[in-house]
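Next comes one such specimen:
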Amino acid sequence: MSAVAERAQVAVIRDLEDRIRGYGDRALVAFSGGVDSSVVLALAARALGLDRIEAVTAISPSYPAGELEVAARTASDLGISHRSVRTHEVERDAYARNDELRCYHCKAELYGVLGRLVRSAIPDTAVLAGANAGDLDEFRPGIWAGERAGIRNPLLEASVGKATVRSIARTLGLRVSDKPALACLSSRVELGIRISPGLLARIDEAEAIVRALGFEVVRVRHRGASATVEVPAGEIDRLLAHPERDAALRALAALGWAEVAVDPNGYRAGGATPRPADA
């Protein structure tokens, strides 16, 4: 990093810390364990002190297996109190029907749970989340849920995008600085197909089978009777040539799909979708 870039990053970090101090004396961080929420957590600790911060991770069928351990290690590295809570978005019919507002109902559930935690403990505690400026490039109705619940997103409010977030994470020495983005398991289900805990568990197991072949970024998309496997475009040839490819695809089919295929276009992050007229 050049001296100019380093000075610019220091200024961004200071601005973020000032913003967090401006929210109040204490903070609870909605902590998935990903790079965005990890940066928010680390900066909140710097701004307010370790004894004024708590990290809370929501556990539900939509949260991939193994991610809680990653979150716990990151919080431990930082010396921050960490706990998990159960959320029940999958039990909400508005969520399970899986339309374009699914993420809104997910975050409404999460922020309702976190809001009750704050009210039962220290009412003046701010609730922070990790949305960043790049999230505005996609359809993210969960951000509206946060606005309605009074959640603060310092990265988004400071117009800090993903590249800067990762750079800050590296500067702060966070173990997740290069961790791939990880959307909830429900994002793998084609819109309009009803979500259930069993379906999400099947997708989670399927992705674990493909990751075991040596692929870090994997998406198994559920399309009803069929499923497609996505890895980054630059790794498709490696997957197709892998000696265990056919066995892995058979293992996925045994989970309940009549047809399983590798997507020749590779992994694609979610694209922008027009906002419905009424949330």
Summary: The longest helix spans residues 3-23. DSSP finds eleven helices and seven strands in the chain.
